[in-house]
Design a protein that fits this description.
This protein has 488 residues and is α+β, with helices and mostly antiparallel strands. It has three domains: 2-123, Beta-Lactamase (2-Layer Sandwich), CATH 3.30.450; 182-269, Helix Hairpins (Orthogonal Bundle), CATH 1.10.287; 274-420 and 455-474, 2-Layer Sandwich (Heat Shock Protein 90), CATH 3.30.565.10. The protein contains eleven helices and twelve strands. It has helices spanning 2-56, 63-72, 118-170, 183-234, 238-263, 278-295, 314-331, 360-363, 382-392, 422-433, 435-447, and strands spanning 79-84, 87-91, 100-105, 111-116, 274-277, 300-305, 309-312, 336-342, 346-352, 396-401, 406-413, 471-474. α1 runs antiparallel to α3. The longest helix has 55 residues, at 2-56. The chain is rod-shaped. The two termini are 85 Å apart. Its EC number is 2.7.13.3. It catalyses: ATP + protein L-histidine = ADP + protein N-phospho-L-histidine. It is found in: Cell membrane. It is an enzyme of class 2 (transferase).
């Protein structure tokens, strides 16, 4: 802003100097020449009077009389010539090559000529040029000074206004606005303050709503969790126990989401990613979504290596995978395949189905909020939110192919275990005799961020590694079966 004001003022002053200075300079030069001509005519009259007086007194004209007039002009190189009765009297140096001259005849018949050389004319005009140049530079310097003052006067309130807008965006406290003396800037500052106050009120209202709703959800979730714990402990039906266990896992995740909603308004920092075992996450998703796929007459197939640890957050990553599987169920067709590919540096989770795919026009904007297909009844928030959750953990969510629709979740690989450790083996054995204690151990493990190890083989068996990829295929609806609690 300061530079633009300075440039505009300098250009304006320069144009004014040129537009006014050129005609003024030309007029001044003409005035200087006119003054020189008037001076010559005045000297000519004085010489004429002196020579006529001398002749009327019966005297003679001599060079000394004329020399006195030459000596009286200190700033002009004067030349005077008087011709009388065939006699010529001169004083001064006769100019050569032009100049300015004036002549007349006296009453006694004398012819008088007064002249100055061209050098004197140029000297007087040059002084005029110097004066005009000094006046132009003075005007330009005054314009620059005014421009600097005006730029400082405008830029300082604008800088204060910019800092105030930045403080409002960062949520820092703002003091009262001191008037700047510029009405427009003060009006903008007042409107910005009103907008900031309204924005803070809306954000606080939304934060209170989320916190209140999340807080109110915890009570029924706790009651439901206790009821499912009771069913798990008392039921003798294996399928009831399995459904109760799966429901408890979903409630645990929902409780974590509620906890995040409550703490989100109080925290300004991003979460810190940890090590997440994809095998555990995908096992849970297979258990949860397989019944829905069976009811739709479709198949959900999950392929995951025995060890697939990544850097991320269990809750958000689970939400992302669930969103992709749900989209494949709602908008896709045929078999839905969830496949994990990894190397030492990165891991990608691909979710693909055998449906007609996504339109090219929609595919370019698939991750924008409020964008969904023509036949979709959703809000268009799921994929946009999923991409945000992945990016918060340093990963990426991309649409790999449009037909068939294939999404890829790119994550950073983390060091993982290749075999079941002895402690986990002991944990599995202890569950076979103490079903209720196994439930409590599972909850503690899930809340610590690790979760139970998923065994993809039937009870008592060991998974067989296929080829060199160490890749297991989870059959539809495969679950970790717990033995019924032994009766005392």
């Amino acid at each position: 802003m300061r530079q633009r004001v300075l440039q505009a003022t300098i250009i304006t002053v320069l144009l004014a100097v040129l537009m006014l200075g050129i005609p003024l300079g030309f007029s001044w030069l003409q005035l200087v020449r006119q003054n020189l001509t008037n001076d010559l005519n005045s000297i000519l009259d004085e010489v004429r009077v002196d020579t006529e007086t001398r002749l009327q007194e019966d005297g003679e004209i001599d060079d000394a009389l004329l020399q006195r007039h030459v000596d009286a002009q200190s700033d002009l190189s004067l030349y005077i010539s008087v011709t009388y009765e065939d006699n010529q009297y001169t004083a001064g140096e006769q100019p050569s090559g032009g100049g300015s001259s004036s002549n007349t005849n006296g009453a006694s018949g004398q012819a008088i000529t007064v002249a100055i050389p061209e050098s004197d004319v140029r000297a007087h005009t040059a002084s005029a040029w110097v004066l005009m140049t000094v006046a132009g530079l003075a005007a330009l310097s005054i314009g620059v000074s005014v421009a600097l003052w005006q730029a400082q006067r405008i830029s300082m309130p604008l800088a204060r206004l910019s800092r105030r807008a930045e403080e409002m965006g960062s949520g820092r406290s703002r003091g009262p606005w001191n008037p700047s003396g510029i009405v427009e800037i003060d009006d903008v500052a007042e409107e910005l303050a009103r907008s900031g106050a309204m924005l803070n009120e809306r954000l606080e209202a939304e934060s209170r709503l989320a916190s209140d709703a999340s807080h109110q959800l915890r009570t029924p979730l706790t009651a439901l969790s206790m009821r499912l714990d009771e069913i798990l402990a008392t039921s003798s039906e294996e399928w009831v126990r399995d459904e109760a266990r799966i429901s408890l896992e979903q409630i645990d995740r929902l409780t974590e989401v509620v906890h995040d909603l409550i703490n989100a308004p109080r925290s300004s920092q991003r979460r810190t990613p940890g090590v997440v075992e994809l095998r555990t996450v995908l096992t849970q998703q297979s258990e949860e979504w397989s019944p829905a796929y069976r009811r739709a007459g479709r198949e959900l197939r999950v392929q995951v290596p025995r060890s697939a640890a990544v850097w991320g957050s269990t809750g958000p990553l689970t939400q992302v995978i669930a969103t992709l599987i749900e989209n494949a169920l709602a908008h896709g067709d045929g078999r839905t395949t969830v496949k994990v590919r990894r190397n030492d540096h990165s891991t990608v989770v691909e979710v693909a189905d055998e449906g007609p795919g996504i339109d090219a026009e929609l595919g370019a904007r698939i991750f924008e909020r409020s964008v969904s297909g023509r036949s979709s009844s959703g809000t268009g928030v799921g994929l946009a939110l999923a991409r945000t959750l992945v990016e918060d953990d340093g990963g990426r969510l991309e649409l790999l192919t449009e037909s068939p629709a294939t999404f890829g979740v790119f994550l950073i690989s983390a060091p993982g275990e290749t075999d079941v450790d002895p402690e986990e083996d002991a944990y599995e054995e202890s569950r076979s005799g103490r079903g209720h204690r196994a439930r409590g151990a599972r909850v503690r493990s899930a809340r610590s961020g690790r979760g139970p190890r998923a065994d993809m083989t039937p009870q008592g068996g060991r998974a067989h590694r296929t080829g060199g990829d160490d890749l297991d295929s989870l059959p539809q609806g495969s679950v970790v079966r717990r033995r019924p609690r032994s009766e005392a």
